[in-house]
């Protein structure tokens, strides 16, 4: 990804963190539903 100034860095960090959190949440939900059933 091309760095486009001072805003690009934090934006990429926030987006990647958001995607990571989303994946973790999905994994957690799958784990709990599988465990519950």
How would you describe this structure to a colleague?
The protein has about 35 residues and is mainly alpha-helical. Helices cover about 80% and strands about 0% of the residues. It has 1 helix and no strands. It has one helix spanning about 10-35. The longest helix has 29 residues, at about 10-35. The protein is rod-shaped and about 45 Å long. The chain starts with 7 loop residues before the first helix and ends with a helix. The relative contact order is 0.10.
List the helices and strands and how they pair.
Elements: H1 8-36
List the defining traits of the structure above:
mainly alpha, 37 residues
Short note summarizing the structure:
With 37 residues, the chain is mainly α. 78% of the residues lie in helices and 0% in strands.
**In whole angstroms, how far apart are the ends?**
42 Å
E-strand count = 0
Content-based structural category: mainly alpha
- Shape estimate: rod-shaped
Compressed to H and E, one letter per element, the order equals H
Instruction: Please compute the radius of gyration using only Cα atoms.
Output: 15 Å
Fraction in beta strands = under 5%
- Average pLDDT figure: 83
Largest sheet: none
Number of helices: 1
Helix content: over 70%
Parts with pLDDT < 50 across at least 5 consecutive residues: none
